[in-house]
Amino acid sequence: MYDKEKGLFDAFVAKKLSRRELLKTTGKMGLSASTAGMLLTQAQTRAMAADFDWMKHKGKSLKLLLNKHPYADAMIANIQTFKDMTGMEISWDIFPEDVYFDKVTAALSSGSSEYDAFMTGAYMTWTYGPAGWIDDLNDFIKDPAQTNPNYNWDDVLPGLRASTSWNGVPGGELGSSDAKQWCIPWGYELNNISYNKTMFDKVGVQPPNNLGEMVEISAKLTKDLGGPYGIGVRGSRSWATIHPGFLSGYANFGEKDFNVADGKLKAAMNTAGSKSFHKDWVKMIQDSGPKNWSTYTWYQVGTDLGAGASAMIFDADILGYFMNGGDNKEAGHLGYAPFAANPAASAPTPNVWIWSLAMNAAGSQKDATWYFLQWATSVEHDLFGARKMDFVNPVRASVWKDEEFRNRIDKSYPGYLHQHDVSAPGAKIYFTAQPLFFDLTTLWAETLQKMVANEVPVDEGLDAMATEIDNKLVEAGLG
Amino acid sequence: MTAAAHTHQPVKQSRFMRRALPYILSLPALLMCIGILIPFFTAVYYSLLRYRMNLPAMKGFIWFDNYLNFFTDPKFWNTVYISLVYAALTVGLELALGLGIALLLQRPSRFNNVVSILLLLPLMTAPALAALMWKLMTHPDFGILSYLLTLVGITDFKWASDPKTALLTVLLVDMWVYTPFIMILLLAGLRSLPKAPFEAAALDGVPRSFVFFRITLPMLMPYIITATLFRLLDSIQQFDIIYAMTQGGPGDKLLVFQVQAYLDFFQSTNVGRSAALMIILWAITYALSNVFIKQWLKLRERAHGAA
């Protein structure tokens, strides 16, 4: 009896059986959903293990450093599959995001080999890579002896593959032919509009189509709703204020952070186009943003939308996803819309945040660590997370085509797939890769705070900031 | 009997042990000293380097350039200014408030004892948690303090998110947490003062203000100086309240030493600049401590001389 069930699921994984046929047969066999799920996972594990010696590092133990996040939760929920397939043991330390990156910096800078792999963002690798704290994973990806033939690296969305690779040259193009793959994309978020449909209907407005409309509609929502504010965007004194909606809109106008010439960087934030964009952005926050905007991180932006304190956010799409479920007050009332800030632009250009996995250069079991990394970023695990857990947004093109995943998202989060599909082709990192990223982007956020507080006019503030940034670049030998 | 006689025999120590004993006894203190001095001198060494962890090729010995660069850096002077203003205001206000409360609770009674214990509760709260609590209480939409302000006609008060009121907001949090520390120290001082001068003044019908300024305050001065020293050293090194509330913003309004040094190290991995900032903070702290300790010693000498 068991062999028959095993054969059924093996045939499905080998694509010899359609999903409809599988469901019909399991129904006839009287299998419960949980048993069917378990058998499917086992069949996928057997399929993965068929052409590759996953047991090569049997008996070894790895330790991970993780951020408390739904992506980590999905991995932990599926970790037994990896253990069964490889015979390896895995342990981890998990920290909240507030302190996570300090912990990573402390662990890596000390040269500690305690952690073999860790979660990171792509921007962080612009520090970790040049410092020699992480390894170039191309050495593993391109080695057929180390990487299972079904890994299908090219299946990872091209914008994300490029955004996580850099040649280490300040201003060097991301994803260039000489770039090092500092980390493997795991899950990602792009920046678009998530909005409260009930509030929009009440006021009688539609999601904005460009920045001008966003400024107007946000002001109307603030005025007419008589309580909730119109638009939620981040504002804390941190680089994280610049990278989501702000840079996505900024890049849509063709504006850049730096000009690169002869290997030297020069600030480009004080062009006429940049000043015009900043003026609109500042006005939008002053008229329709949260009252204590300068303390807003992703957390406040998201929870305000979920609690009905704001009518719309221009931030990570997954914030809108998570706020539309659970016990949030506005769960079920949220909609999603792609957003191109520039009326002349043909498509959105969302800047992205990519949660990725990287390998500690001081680790002592790199081959075994790569086995974990390739499993955790495999099609199979990505699919498991996307179908069964909240592993949004998956990074693999094949997962985005998966019927079960799409049906689930479309049913529970109407409009989400559309905003993603329209925006994904233009989704990538729009910052210039350079080692002073955190200093200079935090300075940008600081200047934005001063402009919103009317401490400095936009033109004057941007000119002063550009001068200060150029001085810092020269001081660091980059300008 | 034999056993008792044996225990009373003097223990014979070897010559070596006699000589080594003082060193052995001071060994824990020596180890402690080494534990403090190694990180200190490591920081001094790093402060003399151009050392950004993400630009390893640029690492090199630059002597005092990190310090010299500060002189022409307006951001550094802003840090010095805001750190000193923050320290002076917190200590001054907490001292005034702590002294006032201590005077009110001076007379030992069951009620006063209970109140003094209750007033100590904020001191038992971790400052970072207190800051998060205040962040909620000052939220413009649902914070209780924002609501109370609307009752007296003040609307749209932005607390820590407005550059004009950010300092005031973090001062309030600091005062809420640390005033009880000063209060309890001064209360202990007030209750231990000799009664005779006060009884004599009462018999002579001396006005209360005269008693306070000419008897209470001078006699309480060692306690005031001790409390001021502790609080000054602590508040010039403030980190958790400010970082939890504003991360040093809005703009650069609250970029005190510790917040700036933390960001330089953990965010920018600029070890050299961060270490130099911390050494300057140490120098300021050291100088302030010296001033206060000298004052305290003078007062002690005067008290001994009077005795």
Question: Explain this structure to me?
Answer:
The complex is a heterodimer of chains A (479) and B (307). Chain A is an alpha+beta fold and 479 residues long. Chain A has 3 domains: 1-30; 56-188 and 353-426, Periplasmic binding protein-like II (D-Maltodextrin-Binding Protein, domain 2, 3-Layer(aba) Sandwich); 190-351 and 434-475, D-Maltodextrin-Binding Protein, domain 2 (3-Layer(aba) Sandwich), CATH 3.40.190. Chain A has helices spanning 2-13, 19-29, 33-50, 70-77, 79-86, 97-109, 125-131, 138-141, 158-163, 197-203, 211-225, 245-252, 272-288, 298-307, 317-323, 366-376, 379-388, 397-400, 403-412, 416-423, 437-452, 458-475; strands at residues 61-67, 89-95, 117-121, 165-166, 180-181, 184-196, 258-261, 264-267, 312-316, 334-337, 352-359. In chain A, β7 (258-261) and β8 (264-267) form a beta hairpin. In chain A, α1 (2-13) runs antiparallel to α2, α1 (2-13) packs across α3 and α10 crosses α11. Chain B has a single domain, classed as MetI-like (MetI-like fold, Orthogonal Bundle), CATH 1.10.3720.10. Chain B has helices at residues 2-7, 15-47, 65-71, 74-104, 110-119, 127-137, 144-151, 166-192, 196-204, 208-235, 240-246, 257-267, 271-306; strands at residues 49-50, 60-61. Chain B is globular and about 80 Å long. Chain B is an all-alpha fold.
